[in-house]
Amino acid sequence: MGQLDGKTALVTGGTSGIGLAAAKRFAAEGATVIITGRRQETLDAAVAEIGAGAVGVQGDASDPADLDRLFAGITSLDVLFANAGGGEFGTLADTTPEHLASSFDRNVKGTVFTVQKALPKLADNASVIVTGSTSATGGSPSFGAYAASKAAIRSFASTWAGELAPRGIRVNTLVPGPTETPGLAGLDPEDTASLFKQLTVNVSLGRLGRPEEVANAALFLASAQSSFMTGSELYVDGGEVGV
Fold first, then answer.
1. Which of 84, 100, 104 is nearest to 149 (CA)?
2. What is the C-alpha separation between 58 and 236, in angstroms, rounded?
3. CA–CA separation, 178 vs 207, rounded Å?
4. Which residues on adjacent β-strands are paired with residue 35?
5. At 207, which CATH number?
6. Per the domain annotation, does 241 fall within a domain?
7. Residue 88: what pLDDT?
8. Which of 29, 54, 127, 145 could form an SS bridge with 2, CB 3.0 to 4.6 Å?
9. Considering 26, 104, 146, 160, which one is annotated as catalytic?
10. How many domains does the chain fold into?
11. Are 219 and 25 contacting, i.e. CB atoms less than 8 angstroms apart?
12. Listed residue (159, 199, 144) closest to 176, CA to CA
């Protein structure tokens, strides 16, 4: 038997990287998996890769209308992994209103309204997982808007854990360190090797994480193995923070 047999899981931003790895892990453990993505072609490819009856719904998590359409097709959820998001480099001197709004729309607005609109669909004792970042605690030069948006998510998740506890719904933050994903590579596509090398400097294990390693932690938070955890942050960072 799988750890998620008979469960339904939604993974936003599930077409690549950590989201796709988590969706595949959930499906392998018996869950019916729904994923979202902004580009239909990429979404179709991810659904085919996940297999096991996976369903893809095209849409942008930061667009409330797309979220309404997504949840209109969902009857009940046991696991919500609000993973969609992203960022781009920008120093304080370079920050523009558009840059700040983009970071907070993708990471904060999208996550807040994904969880809010999921509330009527979440089963009692469901698991909600939000994707944080080590940037939220350590600060990352040239990545301030992204780091601040992830700090906001961390705070929201702590509050939601208390609000949803009467229904037995657990809310936890999954905190990856630098992980080798297309999103990370896209921050500096012209010199990805140098970027990756720079990002490993403060990682005790001396390497980037793999999406599958973060997905294993997502499964732990999604399953009954973490039944007494809520309002927690689970770091999967190779020792970047706290070592």
1. 104
2. 29
3. 9
4. 11, 56
5. 3.40.50.720
6. no
7. 82
8. 29
9. 146
10. 1
11. yes
12. 199
Answer for the pair 5, 223: CB distance below 8 angstroms, yes or no: no
Q: For residues 39 and 56, is the Cβ–Cβ distance under 8 A?
A: no
- Return the number of other C-beta atoms located less than 10 Å from residue 62's C-beta: 22
Task: Annotate 79-116 with b (16+ C-beta within 10 A) or e (fewer).
Answer: bbbbbbbbbebbeeeeeeeebeebbbbbbbbbbbbbbe
Range of the domain at 204: 8-236
Query: Are 79 and 126 a contacting pair, CB within 8 Å?
Result: yes
pLDDT in tens, 162-195: 999 999 999 999 999 999 988 877 767 777 888 8
Residue 242 lies in a domain: no
- Strand ranges (DSSP E) for 43-150? 55-58, 77-82, 122-131
DSSP 8-state secondary structure symbol assigned to residue 83: -
pTM, to two decimals: 0.94
The answer to whether 177 and 206 have CB atoms below 8 angstroms apart is no
Cα angle for residues 210, 128, 181 (degrees, 5° grid): 20
Residue 146 a catalytic site member = yes
Phi, psi of 19 (to 5 degrees): -60, -45
Residue of 38, 39, 33 whose CA lies nearest to 55: 33
